[in-house]
Structure formats: C-alpha cells, structure tokens
Amino acid sequence: MLERETDSSEALVKRAGNGDRTAAAMLVEQHTNMIYVASYRMLGNKHAAEDAVQETFLRLWRNASKWKPQGAKFETWLYRVAMNIC
Prior knowledge:
The protein has four helices and no strands. By secondary structure, it is an all-alpha fold. Helix 1 crosses helix 2 (21-43). The longest helix is centred in the middle third of the chain and has 23 residues, at 21-43. It is globular, with a radius of gyration of 13 Å.
C-alpha cells in the first residue's frame, strides 16, 4: 500500500508541531521500534532503552514545531535525538 503524503513522517511532524496529538501518536507508532532497537543496542538494557524511547518522543512533542524539512530526513533527526539521549 502506498503511503499517503498526509501520512508521511514529514507531514505528521508538521501536524504534531501544530498540536495535533493524533499525528504525534502516529509518529510514535511508526518509529518506536526503530528507536527502541537502536537505544537497546547502544545501552544494552531493556529498561534504559524504554526510558530513552520515552524521552525521545517527549522531545519530539516539545520540538516538533521547530523541525524543518531541510537537510536530514525526519527519521535521521529522530535517530540522532535518541542517540544523544542514550
């Protein structure tokens, strides 16, 4: 199935930046596994990785309005946020 433009990560982060909780929830659903796996690989601890995932998405919620679709892809930016938290 093709992803609709309105469901792309870039579109969702823009909506989340405008306070759309549904868009933020969709981003969490789409990216939690990637962030958890990377965090677990870095930290080697399930609970620490879960905490890192939670903090990553809290930072996304707080900073979504500041993210600009130039330079790195959204996924790359989110991954970097998670690695900085780890």
